[in-house]
Specification:
SH3 type barrels; five-stranded antiparallel sheet; five-stranded mixed sheet; 9% helix; globular; transmembrane helix; transmembrane; Transpep_catalytic_dom; cell shape; peptidoglycan synthesis
Length: 289
């Protein structure tokens, strides 16, 4: 797998401003050049390095007095006005954020509040991948419907904890393969079962939403719900139709379409993902293609 699957967040606008400023300074230097010769280092003059330091303005977040009036950006929620992910074929760069208290989600920096992001999801702390940033803001993937929902979080009030992971997962539906990467190295690749034609595994970039056990089922000791949903089922087994990664007790399901949308993985793959010495962290980016 090419390392080009891990692009950094988009900073083109800041870069463009920086380049424009450099051009302006260079032009001004030509117009205001003195008529006497430029000092020469050989005659004891120190060369002067001109530094240009730019700080893009921080757009303040709007006050949101009533978070309870907003839809919840959780696997159980729907955020109909959420901006959709526009670069769903790229793996996020591994920066993750966790809200230390419920925080508003905005449609753009300084824009309208469209949802509230809770501190936990399905028993695990909420960690969501950053896909873009601007001064004072990060754009993140959301675990709510519709698939591909994103939103902007303010970093200006110290309500977000930030960390990074070098793990990411790629699921190739056509090849029936799940591959785990860490530090740009392939850790393992396994034949898996994916959704059938009637209930296909959804595509796009998402993330490991939680790690959970469920005593009512016997097919997997650990289940990893993802931040993406079935397009076929609005509800499944009493839940919201969340797509997940989980084990399976028999091997006949691997290497073919065999599920209702979830990714069924063999026991050694599940053991690697749950390895106590180095488990795949919550928030790990996942690309399904």
């Amino acid at each position: 797998m090419s390392e080009t699957l891990r692009p950094a967040p988009n900073r083109w606008r800041v870069l463009a401003l920086w380049l424009a400023a450099i051009t302006m300074v260079a032009t001004a230097g030509v117009l205001l050049a003195p008529s006497h010769p430029t000092p020469d280092a050989s005659h004891g003059a120190e060369p002067v390095e001109l530094g240009v330091e730019l700080h893009a303005p921080v757009v303040a977040a709007r006050a949101v007095p009533n978070l309870a009036g907003l839809p919840e950006a959780s696997t159980f929620g729907t955020v109909p006005t959420a901006p959709l992910d526009e670069t769903a074929a790229e793996v996020p760069d591994g920066q993750l954020v966790h809200p230390t208290k419920p925080v508003p989600v905005f449609d753009q920096p300084g824009g309208a509040a469209i949802a509230v992001l809770p501190t936990t999801q399905l028993g695990s702390d909420t960690w969501v991948p950053v896909i873009a940033d601007e001064p004072g803001w990060v754009q993140v993937l959301l675990p709510s419907r519709p698939n591909g929902s994103t939103g902007w979080l303010s970093t200006q009030d110290n309500t977000l904890t930030i960390r990074s992971t070098t793990n990411w997962i790629v699921i190739d539906r056509a090849a029936f393969r799940l591959t785990l990467y860490r530090d740009h190295q392939q850790i393992g690749t396994w034949s898996v079962g994916v959704g059938t034609t009637a209930a296909p595994t959804p595509t796009g970039r998402t993330f490991v939403l939680a790690s959970m056990t469920d005593a009512t089922q016997k097919f997997s000791p650990v289940i990893f719900p993802l931040g993406i949903h079935s397009a076929t089922y609005t509800t499944y087994g009493g839940g919201p139709g969340t797509t997940g990664i989980h084990g399976w007790p028999t091997t006949d399901v691997f290497g073919r379409p065999s599920s209702d949308g979830c990714i069924r993985i063999p026991a050694d793959a599940l053991a690697t993902l749950t390895n106590p010495a180095d488990p795949v962290p919550i928030g790990t980016p996942v690309l399904i293609r």
